[in-house]
Amino acid sequence: MKIVVGIVKPHKLDEVKAALEAFGVQGLTVSEASGYGRQRGHTEVYRGAEYTVDLVPKVRIEVLVDDADAADVVEVIVKSAQTGRIGDGKVWTVPVDDVVRVRTGEHGVDAL
Amino acid sequence: MVGTAAFLSFAAKPDTGDTAWVLAASALVLLMTPGLAFFYGGMVRGKNVLNMLMMNFITMGLIGVVWVIAGYTLAFGDGGPIIGDFGHFKLDHTEGLTGTIPTAAFIMFQAMFAIITPALFTGAIADRIKFGPFIAIVVIWSLAVYSPIAHWVWQANGWLFKLGAEDFAGGTVVHANAGAAGLALAIVLGKRKGWPKEPMRPHNLPFVLLGAGLLWFGWFGFNAGSALGANGTAATAFLTTSTATSAAMLGWVLVEKIRDGHPTTLGAASGAVAGLVAITPACAFVSPLGSIVLGLIAGSVCALATSLKFRFGYDDALDVVGVHLVGGVLGALLIGFLGNSKTGVGVDGLLYGGGFSLLGKQAAAVGSTVAYSFVATLVIAYVVKAAFKGLRVSEETEIEGLDINLHAETAYESFGGSGLRSSASSSTTPKADAEVSA
Prior knowledge:
The complex is a heterodimer. Chain A is of the alpha+beta class.
């Protein structure tokens, strides 16, 4: 099993969610995040004083998947989140030892 | 404001229209202080917003009592040229009229001015003052600085009133005064940790605009109410308050567009407030056209003045100096140029053939108010600092946030709340329930 983690622009969340649902993903976790990549931050001006905002608001999406689906799910997120402009985010996968469904106590792939 | 003692009348009945307007205006002016709380509260960081709101609200509590016991008589008691006497101490005789309205209505209208003036300087001391010293400063300052200056300018025995300096609704008494005090307090307190290198951007601009809207609304009571009657002077003041504020907003936003590239919401809100400040002393004395000129000047000059703190290195956190000191001084001085006798109550200024006489008197009023307020506030700040063994919160408190440390509350779940709330679930049972179940 793997966990697919995607950091995407907040306004792309709905599209990513819809694309994952269409692909057949049964569940996911979304949290607000902030950070920066190569784009760095941006500049804001308050009463004439410039402030550099380092950390840009992002959305973090986490999906637990079977090994066989991992590459496809990554592809689905990348396609649906892409605008082609700087700051689109990143997607990566991490191996997962075990997953337990809290309600039933099922382990492994059965718990996905 | 018209001199009050000169109008003391023993006629039995108040004018009902005048009384109704002044009572309504008093409520309008009271609303300005919560409005100011949100105007400032939106500009601070999320970890300090409750402290900012609380400083403004507690001022309503403090001065709402102090004014009635002692502040009013020091300001509006007959006294001499410098300060009132204790003739109205404790206000145990509020019957009678002031002009055409009940004295009780006049006392309340003035109470709202006394409340908002120290509230104005909370913007200069944001994010770093201990609560106890703040309370001490507000009470002492109100009696030792606000009351005397109000007496100089608005009481018929006051020396600036006798000189003929004009301040219809408080450009010197309220705004230049609060601005000078804010500067003194910001200097004594010192810079916030990290200022000006770390970004300390406003955490909630919608609050700022909400606050500016409430201020604008209440300000009609502040300025038009200062006619102390429902009459033509009130209407003139109402009109010029509207035009000057609109023009000032345009002026500020125009400066931003040219200088920074974008028109901002903070600039629109700040420009409106700068216009309100500047028209305050002048609202009954200038023509509608004059008020538009005054507003444009105030909006654009104040927009530029907010950068002074970076040049001189004093941390006037929310620009009380740039908006209230500069705006109040500008408005009071511009009466000397734009004063128009056709308004019925004003005197001609320089541009209307009145010569330098009025301008000289305005300069005297501005100079003496700013000088006294600045020096007296420095003295008060150092005395309170010694009495409380320091004015500033600890470094940890400043970093972690004043809300959680001074008030044991947080405004928001995560940002600014330091996450201290998450582990509190086991202790949220209300005390009463716990006793019942036990």
